[in-house]
Every structure is written in structure tokens, then in C-alpha cells.
Amino acid sequence: MRFDDRKKRILSAIVETYIRTGEPVGSKTLSEFPEISVSPATVRNEMAALFEMGLLEQPHTSAGRVPSHLGYRAYIDSLMRTKPLTEDEKDGIDALFNISDPDPDKLLADCAETLAEYTGCATVAMTTTPSYVTVEHIDIVPADATTVVLLVIASNGVVKSKVCRLGFRVNTGIADFFRKFAKDRFCGHTLKEISAEFVNAVSIQLGEYSGVFNPLIVGIYELCKEVYDGQYYLGGQEKLLTYNEYSDRALEIMKLISKREKLGPVIGNNPSGVTVFIGKENSLSQLSGSSLLVARFSIGENDCGTIGLIGPVRMDYSRLIPHLEYFAEKLGTLLSITYQRKTGDDNG
Amino acid sequence: MRFDDRKKRILSAIVETYIRTGEPVGSKTLSEFPEISVSPATVRNEMAALFEMGLLEQPHTSAGRVPSHLGYRAYIDSLMRTKPLTEDEKDGIDALFNISDPDPDKLLADCAETLAEYTGCATVAMTTTPSYVTVEHIDIVPADATTVVLLVIASNGVVKSKVCRLGFRVNTGIADFFRKFAKDRFCGHTLKEISAEFVNAVSIQLGEYSGVFNPLIVGIYELCKEVYDGQYYLGGQEKLLTYNEYSDRALEIMKLISKREKLGPVIGNNPSGVTVFIGKENSLSQLSGSSLLVARFSIGENDCGTIGLIGPVRMDYSRLIPHLEYFAEKLGTLLSITYQRKTGDDNG
DNA sequence: TGTTGGCACTCATAAGAGTTGAGTGCTAAG
DNA sequence: CTTAGCACTCAACTCTTATGAGTGCCAACA
């Protein structure tokens, strides 16, 4: 059986109409489409053929047809016309970003929230740190009699700080001693290496002082871990409630996606560009009724994270794919500006 | 009509049974309670009286009775026997806290999440900063050629730091100059004073350098604002979905409570101890079907925030009130340890 | 050979009728 | 004051019937 042009037009019309209305599409409706214009009976013959080919499904005998996962796949891979963003839309998105906090931690959280607002889907934003990234610099700054600020700078330019309260007074001697000790032990090591065991070993080297300095060592460990683990933000989880596809499963899905260890592996290892998982195509059984759109973003050449959309299989791919693409690109650009480390020139 | 002892027992039984089952309570059920043991007809007479007094409602003629808001109020204020936490329960909660991050920012977020898990309600945790709190100390630490860490210490002991990336190289001279400038201008002022206008005025004093140093000034402003605004964390919003009371309003409620400017004023000005808002008693019309339990927590003598539960009016007050009380107390204790500033003695 | 009108068939959905049962209010007797 | 008895109410359930959107298949037509 040939997948000829008319079959393609009919499949496209079914997918697009179903996405729009959520109702199974019947032969009469389709026959009235200008790009089809044949009688309902003919459409029925074609639909029977598309059903044979596994591209359509039928909820029950006397209902219209609905795209199968294979049907969506064929539509997305070769039939769909994506609608590129208009300049106005781009400007709208840019404006949303301009007001957001330039702090990279918050940037990602804001991006997840904004993307959710813009697309009506639940979103996820995640960063990953390459395993070759090392600790470049460690500092300890006394803030107050018994409080210090710990500072870790990684070789990829990420800087994290943490307030650390101690049970004793910190004078410059103590600070200098610990600063040197920490630099010697941590700098140059990859973040990946700095495990709980590594930290234990370091702590032991402090001998009788290990108990005293332990909060600081742990603080450094936590900062390193924070940098290495990267971030994981969700946005607009409540959007799932607006789709009746999720009527009673919404809670389960919300719990699932809130766990990085579950969703991370699925969305974290994809090629650049937008990857689409339709229904069962992803490996999480609970998400078999959902589609995932994921896009990687990068700082310059360095791939550094993923943003994704989670919604019902019946989502408007042709609109959402270009949007997600633009968000990922924009996010990369903004992060690049933040992490531009070698600007060099003095302005003041 | 006297609100005699038997009426009280009947009202208590109705409230408790309705909270447990969610179904209107009938005279036959009640007559079988050992503490009532009169015939259904007698119970009906009493119920008619309680209805007259406005303490009960009837969903429809042939249904049992349900407590009115006034009925809940009477129950909570004078009839309810709260169930104090067992030592085991306390230990369980303590254990949950012990594993949590001692960083006060995270402590509050964890507390909200844990409390939600423990109670099955949506939760909110919020800190407030008294208006007399001032900026005590400001520092700027060069981290990297073009990156510095800003540090603000407030007089209530809160320390916040922020990584700030600049478009120019920072040498010690620049850092020293700016440190002195910022200390002179900000230290001693209350956080409340440090508004956008205040910051503009400060910026102008930098004259031709104001453009260059602006990111730093803004950074300080943001840190001060962050300290002054305090925190606002939600936990277990998805718990609302498990109550059929919220079948389709859950989304609306979730959106509402996510806005501090909406919920903050309602829960922020209550006396110490646990305050209960039953249904319409709070000023937000969207929350008329919900009850709020709020408790203040404090560091030593200083009141510093609120934690609260949001759930259906039909919630188990006798269990939840002591739990919330204990969480608030625990939170205060843990924060006190973190913010214990004058420990003084050297341990090392 | 592809297209179309006609027709019998299917089946989800909605509407109506009847039944059930939990619960009430009222009354009169204990 | 308490209680048994009784008629009444009404949501919820079941059963039946009607409706209509949509199908598959066949025969006729271009």
C-alpha cells in the first residue's frame, strides 16, 4: 500500500484537527477540508488504509479516528510544517528574559517558569557539569566573629558561595591556615572526584583539628557537589491539571517529574536540537501518555544543560518545537554573557 | 436554648465523624456512640436544636448533618481534645530535621516540604524581618579577574552573599575603594530604608563611576532586599489534589497561595501560638472552602516568621494543631542554633 | 481502477422512569 | 424528657430507550 500524497494530507489533517479539538476526527469533517475535497466515502477508504498501516487508531467502532503514536511520529518527522516565530513573538520572549535576574541560578528557574507560562506545559530545566571540570579556587572570608563565607570557583567559571556558622571565633590566623590547607587539598581536583570519601580522607589529615574544621570541610564539599550536580528546576507543574488527559494521573506525574533521578536520565542524553519523545517512546511507563520535547543548550561550544516540555501527547508540536528551540538558544546566549570570563578590558 | 453537655457531645461526635468520613452524619450513627446512647429520635431533637443555633448544616432534606463554620469554631475553641504528640512522633519529626541541611534558607524549604508530607496539607513557610534591622557589615571579595562576591550582614545576624560578574578587571585598589564607599553609604541604615530610590541616590554619588559600579550597587540592593523580604516557601501543593473538595478548584488555589502578596498578609499578622482560620474566616474569597492553620516561630524572643497549613475545612484539627505547634517550636530552636551569634568561646 | 451514494450496523451519550435506602420531622405514648 | 412509629423527602443507582455521529461494505458510475 502506497503512502501517497492524499494519505499524507489526510493524516496531517487528522493530527492537526485532533490536536486542536481533542475529539476523534470523522470522515465527513475531513471531506470538507479544501486540501482534501473528496467524498466522505473516499476519505473512509483512505482512513481504513492508514489504519492498516498503523498510523491511526479508533477509540471505538462508531467513533472517528485518532492518530497512533506512529501517526504522530510520521507527522512530526516528515509532514509537519513548523511555524517559525515571528519577530513580535521573539521580542515578547526577549522582553520576558530582560527583566529576569541575571543570576544564573535564578535565570534557569525563571526560564522554566516563563517557558511554562508561554507554552501551557510543565517544564524542566537542568544543567550538567562535564566530569573534567576542576576546583580552581577556594577562599574563606571571615564575615563576623563566628561566621565565615566559603567560596568555590570551578574551572568552568561557576562561582558558588555559602555562609558557614561556626562554634568558635575565627581570627586571621585560623582563616589563613584553613585557606592554605583547603587550597592544597582541593584545588586541581575534578568536582567528580570530591566524594564523601574524599572529604573524609581530607578531614583525617587535619588530625586533632578535624572536628573543629569539619563544618568548613563539609561546606566545601557541599559547594562542590552543588556545582557538580548542577541545577534542576521545574516550572508550571500545575499546567498539567488543565488537560483532561491527566484528570486523575496529574498528581502521579507531578511527583515523578519532581525527581531528577527519574527524569534526568531520560532528558539528559540527547543530541543537540529539539528531540521529541511521543508517548511510550520515553522509558518511563508513567509518562506513556505524555510527550516530552527536550532541547539542549550550551555556553559557546560547551553543552551545559537541557530544557524540556512535558505535556499530553496531543500537544501542538508545530508551535512548541520552534518555541523550545528559541528558548534554548536564548538561554545559552544569556548564560554565555554571564559566564564570559575573559572579557579582560577595563571599563573604569 | 441551652448548649448543654449532651449537645456538646453530639456536636463533637458530628465534627469528628464528618472529619473522618467526609459524609454527612445521621441520627442513627450518632445514637450508637457510647458517649451518646440515646435513641435516634432524641438525637434528632438535639440536632434540630443545634441546627437552630447555627452550629449544623444540612446539605439536603434527607441527608445527615454537617458542621457549619460556627460549629467547627465551637468545636475547636472549647470542645476539641487535642492529641499531644507522643515521644515517638516527636522523635520521628526530630529525625526528619536532623538530616536536613542546616543552611537556614534550605531549612525553611525543607520544613515546608516535611510538614506537608507529615500532614497531607499544602504548607507555607515565611520569614519576616523587623523594620529596625540594619545593615551591619558589607564586604566585597575578589574571586576571579572579573568576578567578586558581595557580602551583606544584617544586625539580626543574617548573612547573605552573592556572586557578581563585572565587565572589567577588579584589582585590590578598586575593591578597597568600593568596599569603603559601600560601608559608608549603607552600614547603619535599616534594611527598610534601602529602597530603589535610596540606591539611585547612592549611585549618583559615584559620579562618573556610577555606571561602572552600578552592578555592585544593585547587587547590594538585591541582597538587602532579599534579607528584608525574607523567604517564602511552599510545600506539598500537590497534596490539595488528593481532596475531592478541591476537585476543580485546586489549580486556582495553588496559583493563589504561590503569591506571597496574597497569602502573606493573611498569615503574617497573628498572635503567637496556633491560629485557626475556618473557611470564610480568612479574607481571601478563593480560600473560603479551606482552613488555614498558622503558627509563628521565633528565634529566642524575636518573632521571625510563620508556618502554615492549607487544607479543606474538613481537616483533622485535633491532630494537626499540636503537630504544627511542634514544628514551629522545632524550627525556632533550629534557627536559634544557626543564628546564635554570641557563642564567644573558642573551641579550637 | 478510483470515486461515490446508499444503507445497515455499532456504540457512546443523554434523557427519562422506576427503585432503593438513608435520613428527616412530627406525633403520640411511655 | 424520651422514644417508637410513620409518612415523607430526595440523592443515587439501575434499567430502558432514543439519538446521532460515525463506520464498513457494496454496487453503480466515470
Folded structure, characterized:
- The structure is a homodimer of 348-residue chains.
- The first copy, chain A, is α+β, with helices and mostly antiparallel strands.
- Chain A has helices at 5-21, 27-31, 40-52, 69-79, 87-98, 104-119, 172-186, 196-204, 210-229, 250-257, 260-268, 317-338, and strands at 56-57, 66-67, 122-127, 135-144, 147-154, 159-165, 232-235, 274-277, 290-299, 302-312.
- In chain A, the strands form 3 sheets. Chain A has a 5-stranded antiparallel β-sheet with strand order 7-3-10-9-8, with helices on both faces. The first copy, chain A, has a 3-stranded antiparallel β-sheet with strand order 4-5-6.
- In chain A, α1 packs across α4.
- The longest helix of chain A has 22 residues, at 317-338.
- At the A-B interface, β4, β5, β6, α9 and α10 of A face β4, β5, β6, α9 and α10 of B.
- Chain A binds a DNA duplex (30 and 30 nucleotides) through residues 24, 26-28, 38-42, 44-45, 47-48, 58-64.
Keywords:
alpha+beta; DNA-binding; three-stranded antiparallel sheet; homodimer; 45% helix; disordered C terminus; 10 strands; 348 residues; 12 helices
